[in-house]
Design a protein that fits this description.
22% strand, alpha+beta, Nucleotidyltransferase, domain 5, 2 domains, 6-stranded mixed sheet
Length: 438
């Protein structure tokens, strides 16, 4: 019986999940879990690469202790962030996407190539942390001097395991530098910004084997976690006898809520740009989606207001609150505030009186943002959708799911599964010619 290992790392935690086929079904077991988070260093938000690598290796040790024979492994993480290398060593610090270092360079980038042209070429929504702006900030700071390689976060972690410097398609598309037409890094963008052309290599597809670690094959999954999550939804619904189609919406609900739909090709028209929609790589399809602030809002409120209170109590109290005002969940004020409570206070006509009011406002504001985003998708695609799949941590929040169903008028199908890990595993199994019916 072949065993496979998915290493799924989010902005707040990571997990190692072993999967295998048993009587035609995918079985999974979490063998290791670890905390993750940004580290403040000299006034900037950074990632602790050594800690991440240490946890990745420790989790593999735990997997091998439980299952001595593992066929393959792969790593997925959030998008846009990367590691610069000089030779084989990382350039430190490794900045996190929530850091504000790109603010100065965004206008400079748009002077060299206006955003309308960037969007026409890539179909990637504007976010101040897009890879293209982060690289411009590195260039301005002189951090690209002598740099030999540029690896997205999961690529770097797999490089540390097997020595291969791979460049995977789905994660590359998140950064705003991949051509929507060719699926390769766009040389015109690279030249316009004066970035070192030698850093940008051909992109490889999910399922590609790149090396070995302790006798385990190292493969590329859809290394952007949302790409793997959408594959996980498809695998789960296939098992349930309700195959996911291009007519089904999805939300990968974690720190961010990634709301979208699968389309045959990117949509880079003016309406999509004005609505700030992204076209990100999928496994044989395009993901037409939007980043919405997500559970970050309530996670930070809880950390500030009631860190010891169970989530069940928080949602029950929010449900009983009568507080009606809403905020724009995508307002930049919520991206990385020192105080999430103060950010809400600044955007509300009057401050809430109770803790529960803040959470009710956050949940209802998220549901409204979902409704608005779905309306944009339906206008821009010319299609109407009836089902909305929700996976990730938010899928376990019954109150938010009910608010979402009421706000959108769609049938909400909450799948409280490790969708990203399932997608990661499914891609590995397909590469091994072992079909997963999960």
């Amino acid at each position: 019986m072949k065993r496979y290992l998915a290493i799924d790392i989010g902005a707040s935690s990571g997990r190692h999940i072993v999967g295998w086929m048993e009587q035609g079904r995918l079985r999974t077991e979490e063998v290791y879990r670890f905390p993750n988070g940004v580290v403040e260093q000299a006034g900037h938000l950074t990632w602790d690469l050594a800690a991440l690598e240490g946890h990745v290796r420790a989790g593999i040790d735990a997997a091998l202790a439980a299952y001595p024979a593992i066929e393959s492994l792969s790593v997925d993480t959030w998008g846009v962030d990367y590691v610069l290398l000089r030779g084989g060593e990382p350039v430190l610090p490794c900045y996190a996407y929530r850091d504000s270092r790109t603010e100065e360079v965004i206008p400079r980038v748009h002077e060299k190539m206006p955003f309308a042209e960037l969007y026409r070429r890539t179909g990637i929504q504007f976010q101040p942390f897009n890879t293209v702006y982060q690289l411009a900030a590195d260039q301005l700071a002189g951090r690209l001097e002598g740099v030999t390689d540029f690896l997205m976060m999961p690529e770097y972690l797999m490089y540390r395991l097997c020595g291969a410097k791979a460049h995977e398609y789905t994660n590359a598309t998140t950064g705003g530098m991949v051509s929507a037409e060719t699926g390769a890094f766009d040389p015109e963008i690279i030249r316009a910004l004066g970035l070192p052309e030698g850093l940008f290599h051909p992109l490889q597809q999910p399922g590609t084997e790149i090396g070995t670690y302790r006798g385990i094959r190292v493969l590329l999954c859809a290394t952007h976690d949302t790409g793997s999550a959408v594959e996980g939804i498809a695998a789960e619904m296939e098992r349930a006898g309700q195959p996911m189609t291009g007519g089904d919406l999805y939300i990968s609900s974690g720190t961010w809520s990634l709301l979208g739909v699968r389309t045959p090709r990117p949509l880079t028209d003016e309406a999509s740009r004005e609505a700030n929609y992204s076209n990100e790589g999928g496994v044989g399809y395009n993901r037409y989606q939007k980043n919405i602030m997500g559970m970050w809002l309530v996670n930070r409120l809880r950390a500030e207001l009631c860190p010891e209170k169970p989530w069940g109590d928080i949602t029950a109290e929010a449900e009983s609150s009568a507080f009606d005002p809403l905020v724009d969940a995508n307002d930049p004020i919520f991206l990385a505030p020192e105080s999430m409570k103060a950010a809400f206070d600044a955007r509300l006509p009057q401050p809430p009186e109770r803790e529960a009011d803040y959470f009710r406002c956050a949940y209802r504001s998220l549901a409204r943002s979902y409704r608005q985003a779905i309306g944009e998708i339906e206008r821009n695609t010319g299609e109407s959708y009836s089902r909305l799949y929700i996976v990730g941590g938010g899928a376990r929040n019954g109150f938010l799911n009910r608010l979402t169903e009421e706000a959108t008028g769609k049938q909400v199908v909450a799948l409280p599964i490790e969708a990203t890990a399932i997608g990661n595993l499914s891609i590995q199994m397909k590469a091994a010619k072992e079909e997963a019916t999960c």
